[in-house]
Design goal:
mainly alpha, three-stranded antiparallel sheet, 3 strands, about 65% helix, DNA recombination, DNA_brk_join_enz
Length: about 80
């Protein structure tokens, strides 16, 4: 699907257009960080410009699942005396 040039991180799409892999990865990491730290779904929806909360949840659900497990452990630790 993509042709990768390891030296400069430029990728070629099937249609012959190019994108820089580092920029794309940095953007994704930034959004993932926003989900992990903010975790206010409605606020994240507005930041990302998604029309509905369902779109936001479909895109970032994998990040939120990991956070749920961490939150459960934190709650369990707080409840054990």
């Amino acid at each position: 699907m993509f042709e990768h040039n390891a030296k400069d991180k430029i990728y070629e799409n099937e249609d012959g257009t190019f994108f820089i892999g580092l920029v794309r990865k940095k953007t994704y990491a930034t959004y993932e960080e926003a989900v992990d730290t903010v975790c206010e779904r409605k606020v994240l929806q507005e930041i990302m410009g998604h029309k509905t909360i369902a779109i936001t949840m479909q895109v970032y659900n994998h990040v939120l699942e990991g956070r749920a497990e961490a939150e459960m452990q934190r709650i369990s630790s707080a409840l054990v005396v």
